[in-house]
Design brief:
A hairpin with a 6-residue loop joins strand 6 and strand 7 (about 90-95). By secondary structure, this protein is mainly beta. The protein has one helix at about 1-25; strands at about 30-40, 45-50, 55-65, 70, 75-80, 80-85, 90-95, 105, 120, 125, 130-135, 140-150, 160-170. The strands form 4 sheets. A 5-stranded antiparallel β-sheet has the order 2-1-3-11-10, with no helix packed on it. A 4-stranded antiparallel β-sheet has the order 9-4-12-13, with no helix packed on it. The protein is flat.
């Protein structure tokens, strides 16, 4: 009788253990609910703006259910070194890697992901969402990309979503 009772207890314990582990392994792909832009006023308060202004620091707030978030504002791309050709003054990339990609001093364009010198902005979690600050160096149209992930990097249950927010007009 004791033997049967102990086998039933061990079987139930093992079943509950595996059930709880399986529930933790199910990871949903994160979603993006929206992106907002804030500029700090003279009083130190954040003021919601429809679009950023060149030369002014803007707070980019990403509303998402993700565990991690990075923002690629697309405002900077600087190649390490350029050479001027002898036939008309056109410039072309001089410093290239072994795959013939330009070596960058810095870039925050998502299309440069994986190249030397390219990286997104690190974000911090607040009650409003993930946020970072950025200053667009010039006016124009920029492609804003947000990368959201669940369960971190280098694991089997890594869920990544690359969301192209779209073209952003900077005054």
């Amino acid at each position: 009788m004791k033997n049967i009772f102990s086998k039933i207890t061990i079987g139930m314990f093992a079943g509950m253990l595996f059930t709880s582990c399986l529930k933790e392994d199910i990871v949903a792909t994160p979603s993006l609910n929206g992106v907002k832009f804030y500029i700090t006023t003279a009083e130190g308060k954040d003021s919601l703006v429809p679009q950023p202004v060149k030369g002014k620091s803007v707070k980019i707030v990403v509303d998402t259910d993700a565990d991690m978030c990075s923002v690629w504002p697309g405002g900077t791309r600087e190649i390490m070194k350029k050479k001027i050709s002898t036939d008309g003054g056109a410039t072309f990339a001089d410093s290239v890697d072994m795959f013939n990609h330009p070596v960058l001093v810095k870039s925050d364009l998502y299309s440069d992901y994986g190249l030397v010198g390219a990286k997104g902005l690190k974000t911090t979690l607040s009650s409003e969402g993930w946020y970072c600050t950025y200053t667009y160096p010039k006016a124009g149209e920029f492609n804003l990309v947000v990368v959201v992930t669940n369960h971190g990097y280098n694991t089997n249950d890594f869920k990544l979503a690359v969301v192209e927010v779209g073209k952003l007009q900077v005054k």
